[in-house]
Amino acid sequence: MINIIFTPSMLLAFIIWVICYLLILVQKHDSALSGPPDSFCVISSMIYSFGILLHGWRFDPILLLSQFILVTLLFLLIYEVLSLRNSLR
Prior knowledge:
This protein is mainly α. It has one domain (8-88). 79% of the residues lie in helices and 0% in strands. The chain has helices at 8-29, 36-55, 61-88.
């Protein structure tokens, strides 16, 4: 029997996938803003979100909160780097 329950970890994985997709669109739209390290970050974030999606139901609430905080900080830093690169051009 397959039991799929919507949990906060699924929301976190979905948010990561959406942001990674937006970063891919930024890379396609303006390739001067992105480099090889950015592609590595996007791919590793997608793999990370797939792991959260598969095993996220095992997370306790404190671990899940720390994951939310880390992912939020990561994407805020990515946004800051992209805006700085855009202002330098």
